[in-house]
Design brief:
about 475 residues; single chain; 3 helices; mainly beta; about 5% helix; 3-stranded mixed β-sheet
């Protein structure tokens, strides 16, 4: 669970969008052609935004395994002739590799199949398989002395050398995700999308259903969409769910394994639990002129159920900054999230550029601002390059604490998970694409990602004053995409 702005958001282009070939003509594309390409790209986003574009990762920031957007396409991507003939299937495939410095590594494969039946119906299916390995921060703070932690299963321990950020080096998981979508044009003005979603990993299962209704008017220059999605997640952590703010126990403190296991089990709730999410969204897309279009959307999400990370702890410190104990974190069982999204796309004589801003806020106190831009330049009819810049700033949840003080009473909720703390993140990327001899479209994406957490005002006393409590995370992302 720890590797999470979501590879989903960092991998925002997986080769499943409009093919390179649709934008590469026999000669360099005109401004009008570039806008047409931009319109298709944007309209294909509308349903995704309306359905669940901001699932519960820990927040907007990538790599969140809880960010699960069902595959959604717009019927306006279908052919324009009134026919029931089945068009040749479109196949998109991608391989993504994400590597954090000294932490998590993610390898992911994506396969997407799209089938248009006439000009009014499109079916789409998507398969995603990813593996995560490496070390994940467990929430405790560095110390002058070597630290020992009991593994989540209760079977064994791991040690952290003095001065190092405590990382659980057994972090690994494999996830398979299946999603399907049916898009239908019911009339010249009305269309709809319907989707199903299933994701399974060792300790987490998610199932979802979504639907969106779209209405076009103003000579098809304006599109209004209304969407809803429901997700039901089952959580079954390794070793069971820790009792909120209970103390971690250690094998060396007991004479026998049986005594240790008895005390360990007292800190656990064995039965699995669930989380439910309802997303509501409304979006408006407007073509301003032949060179520009804009989109605005509002999303409301209600989450209820288990949202604590069962693998995170907090350090309980004395006045000298020395750890007396490790407590398992605790989070509320309800959360309301709201977000506002503004997007514009502009056609240029040599390509396309877009700008986006998103503001998100929830009743946990987490607020965020995201600024993002892409500039695509067509070098020729068969070759393009694209620059990507993204800045994200987040304010911490009210119950975020880098550590707890033993001289103070325990709060009801507390978490040292940096993903709900203060942070700034930066993404810089480049993407290249071209047509192969056989007509296959190939793309290559390379990005650098950096996350810089910062203090929420807590004073680091004693030995903590010379330790790094908010280390930066740096990562490289590479993706290869093919479209047939």
């Amino acid at each position: 669970m720890a590797a999470t702005e979501s590879v989903n958001e960092l991998k925002s282009s997986t080769g499943t969008g409009p093919k390179i070939g649709t934008s590469l003509c026999a000669s360099a594309p005109s401004i009008a052609e570039a806008l047409s390409i931009a319109s298709i790209a944007l309209l294909s986003m509308t349903s995704s935004v309306a359905l669940a574009a901001q699932r519960d990762s820990v927040d907007d920031d990538p790599i969140g395994r809880d960010t699960r957007v069902a595959a959604a396409i717009t019927p306006h991507e279908a052919v324009t002739l009134d026919t029931d003939e089945t068009e040749p299937a479109e196949i998109d495939a991608a391989l993504l590799y994400y590597l954090e410095q000294d932490r998590v590594t993610v390898a992911e494969g994506i396969f997407n199949l799209k089938l248009a039946v006439g000009d009014k119906r499109v079916y789409e299916g998507k398969l995603v398989l990813d593996t995560l390995t490496g070390s994940s921060a467990n929430g405790a703070v560095p110390q002058d002395e070597r630290q020992t932690f009991t593994r989540p299963s209760g079977n064994g321990e791991y040690n952290i050398d003095s001065g190092n950020t405590p990382l659980d080096d057994t972090f690994k998981d494999t996830r398979i995700q299946l999603s399907g979508n049916w898009a239908e044009i019911w009339s010249p003005d009305w269309s709809s999308n319907h989707g199903l979603y299933l994701s399974r990993e060792y300790d987490y299962t998610s199932m979802g259903i979504n639907a969106a209704l779209e209405r076009t008017f103003n000579k098809n220059n304006t599109q209004l969409s209304l969407g809803m999605a429901y997700y039901y997640d089952l959580v079954d952590p390794v070793g069971g769910r820790p009792v909120a703010l209970s103390k971690m126990v250690f094998r060396d403190d007991f004479d026998s394994q049986a005594e240790f296991r008895t005390e360990f089990d007292k800190t656990r709730q064995i039965a699995s639990t669930d989380k439910q999410t309802v997303d509501l969204s409304v979006g408006l897309t407007q073509i301003i002129n032949r060179y520009m279009l804009v989109q605005v959307s509002y999303n409301l999400s209600s989450l209820q159920g288990y949202m604590t990370d069962p693998y995170k702890v907090l350090s309980l410190l004395d006045v000298s900054g020395t750890s007396e104990a490790y407590l398992y974190e605790s989070r509320p069982h309800e959360r309301i999230k709201q977000s506002f999204y503004l997007f514009s796309k502009h056609a240029l004589s040599t390509g396309v550029t877009d700008l986006a801003y998103r503001f998100s806020h929830d009743d946990w106190g987490v607020s965020s601002h995201t600024f993002e831009t892409r500039y695509r330049y067509n070098f020729s009819a068969t070759f393009f390059g694209q620059l990507h810049l993204r800045f994200y700033r987040q304010e911490a949840a009210r119950f975020y604490r880098a550590f707890l003080n033993s001289g103070e009473g325990l709060p009801e909720f507390a978490s040292a998970d940096y993903r709900i703390g203060n942070m700034n993140t930066y993404t810089f990327g480049i993407k290249m694409g071209h047509s192969l001899v056989d007509g296959t479209q190939a793309s290559y994406r390379l990005e650098y990602y950096q996350q810089d957490p910062y203090s929420n005002g807590e004073q680091a006393t004693g030995q903590l004053a010379h330790h790094e409590l908010y280390p930066s995370i740096k990562a490289i992302i590479f993706q290869l995409g093919l479209s047939f």
